[in-house]
Each structure stands twice: as structure tokens, then as C-alpha cells.
Amino acid sequence: MLTLLGLSGQTQAGNANTQTVSFQNQQQTQLVQQQRAAQQRAKQMQLQAQQRAAQQRARVMAERKRQQMARLRAAQQRARAMAARKRQQMAQQRAAQQRAKQMQLQAQQGSKPAIKPNIKPLTTVQTCTL
Questions:
Q1: Of all residues in the chain, what percent are helix, strand and coil, respectively (each to 5)?
Q2: pLDDT tens digit string along 75-110?
């Protein structure tokens, strides 16, 4: 009977040992799963941070491009305004030169009017005798 009890004790001890190993394996598996989940969360957070950074860079680049285009349009507008002023100055200068030339021609002609008046000289009045 003692042998049976001894065998029974060994079997129970073996079962307890097996349960302990099984429990440790289960804990090990849970720990590995938790570590993997934590790594996955960390990787996901890193990817999200990288995406946010990329979006921010894209916004900054778009804003720089918008400002650059605005400066370009302003420069083009200034250039068009300057060209218009230059054309106006040239037209005024040509008109002034034309007037000066006309006045010089009139001075050379001796203040003669360009159009002769259509006036006939007076004739002598004839007297009639009655």
C-alpha cells in the first residue's frame, strides 16, 4: 500500500510539476504577446508621427509655394505698371517734341497764319451824279 501511496504521491507531484511548467509557459506566452502588442503599438505610433510630420512638411511647402506665386504675381504687376508708365512718358515726350517742332516751323514762317483769310480789298466808292 505504501508503494501505491508513494506512486500516487509521485504522480501528484509530477502533475503539479507539469501544471507549474504549463503555467510558466502560459505566462511566458502572455508576456511575449504583450511585448509584441506593445511593439506593434509603438510602431503604429511611430508611423502616425511620421505621417503627421510628412503632412506638416507638405503644408509648409504648399504655403511657401503660395507665397512665392504671390510674390511673382506682384512683381509681374509692378513690371506691367512700370512699362505702362514708360509708354505714357514716351508718348508725352513725342507729343512735346511734335509741339516744339510745330512752333519752330511757325517761327520760321514768320507768324504767317497757315490759312489765308478770304478777305477782298476794299474798292473805291463811286459817286453818282444826279
A1: 85, 0, 15
A2: 999 999 999 999 999 999 999 999 999 999 888 887
DSSP 7-45: HHHHHHHHHHHHHHHHHHHHHHHHHHHHHHHHHHHHHHH
Residue 55 forms part of a structural domain: yes
Residue with cell 509603438: 42
Structural domain including 87 reads 23-109
Grid coordinates of 130: 444826279
Flag whether pLDDT at 14 surpasses 60. Answer: no
Q: How many domains does the chain have?
A: 1
